[in-house]
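During the second year of the project, the team shifted from modelling isolated chains to modelling whole assemblies. The rationale, set out in the original proposal, was that interfaces cannot be judged from single-chain predictions alone. As a representative example for this report, we include one of the complexes processed in the last quarter. Its constituent sequences, exactly as entered into the pipeline, are reproduced here:
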Amino acid sequence: MLWSRRSVFLGLVVGGPVVLAATLRLAELSGLLFDPRRPRPAGVVVYGMMIWLIYVRFLVPVLGVFYGTSLIADEVDDKTLTYLFTRPIQRSAVIIGKYLAYLVCTILLLLPSVVIVFFLVVPLGQGATIGAMFPTLLTDLGMLAFGLAAYGAVFAFVGARLKRPLVVGLLFALGWEPAVLIAPGYLKRATVAYYLQALVRHEMPQDSPASTLMQIFREIPPVSTSLIGLAVIVGLGLWLAGRTVEVREYVLEQ
Amino acid sequence: MTADAGSLDARVREGEAPRAGIVVAEHLSKWYGQIIGLNDVTLSVPPGITGLLGPNGAGKSTLMKMITGQLKPSQGTITVLGERIWGNPALYARIGFCPEQDAFYERMTGLEWVTALVRLNGVDEGEADLLAKRALELVELSDAANKKIGAYSKGMRQRVKMAQALVHDPELIVLDEPLSGMDPIVRRKTIRMIREWGRQGKSIIVSSHILHEIEAMTPNILLISQGRILAEGDVHQIRSLIDEHPHTVHIRAERPRSLAREFLAHDDVLSLEFEDDAVVVETARPDMFYARLTTLAASGELGTIHEVTSPDDNLQAVFQYLVKS
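Output from the structure prediction step:
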């Protein structure tokens, strides 16, 4: 799963925040970037913004879409599915096994990036120290891992069910979810982001009108509700994915 | 043996006991939207090697996929080794399938790939390694076991596919166009291997659209075309089922015209024509004709008969005849 063009591309994408963090750190150390007449943003704030804007709103959903939808879809496109589905194991066991491999791989891809960014960015400017912020780092790592699990489960089902799952997945993660989160009402509870964003301990950035609207209509469920909600999403997504592969016929084109 | 085609006599099966066989299909149909893949197929595949023969698009792969549980029937039933196959993964411990598509995890070596697949049978790592090596030895790929599959030739790729089908020592092996793309030497070796597996007591269903390949492996065939089974059984017995239809005999003789005059005196000869030193006869009653011919050959009264062949007595003729019926 890791040795593919997709992984190289996503590896570069995941490396982007590390490069950004390293640039900021170098800029501060060299005194080049910041205006000495103005107060520098605290490293903690920069780190929080990166967690929101880069990891929670982009990287976690995108990794979930690209890898989750490909669990079965790649086997169908490569015509290797036959070998897996003619072994004496339940088809659902195949997709669950691939999902677990997805989870390990994406965690290994993403979380080191977060750790490096943390150590580069938190010491910037004035603010809390690394030691004081370390529990926040652990919370963020757990939150992002849970996000990968939830998005992965949803898109595993999408990939098992649909013929063009990547397009649908991207529309869901980068279109539907942000749109629904802005709007008032209960629809937002049908998104992973609603529960995941409630677990982010950092201040939501005011980076756009959309963020402002999100702040206005934002309801923050309790942590317990979010954890249960995400667990239900993982369980339901995997159950639906397993059920789909058990009953669906996959006609591989000759 | 049975034949089921437009102008052929079908065997009456009233009062017969339920079919027994490693694969039994009853009124099996499969359609994809408006397209019919299989059309009311009823068959019983006996133990041993059975060839599934038909042109491209005949329904061979559809039938193979239904036998291996990748497709479920739209109508009718299919059982394999006495059990329903769809949704019954435990049965795959007894079945090995070599699909037609040339698809692999190219970055893996042959040994890694076969080992990984047999591990899905619940085998531990050490045993999986041993089984995989044994399977690769059976298909004569031991030397290339540690090479990446991406570097394999076409013949090697086909053989490693067969290795993964054999690795868990199944009772039934299903091979979908196993000789596709092979050179003649490898083809011959593979046919020999398949026949050896049959001698070892395995049941094998092998599909092909190339007639002489099937003939080289087994006399027991299923003819399929346009989603229908045209005939099943021994190729010679199938031919005998159509004995009321003209049977062509090619006789190379010293005096073909004298023979022709003798033949025309009997009403079972429908037509004849001459070719160089031979006469080609179309007869409605081949048994009688051959008996008469044997007498003539023994007596020598109409000259020496050098050679008697029947272009009909092979799969090509049977198949073309049945497809046209």
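Chain B touches chain A at residues 32, 61, 68-72, 87, 89-93, 95, 97, 99-101, 103-105, 107, 117, 120-122, 164 (CB under 8 Å). The radius of gyration of chain B is 24 Å.
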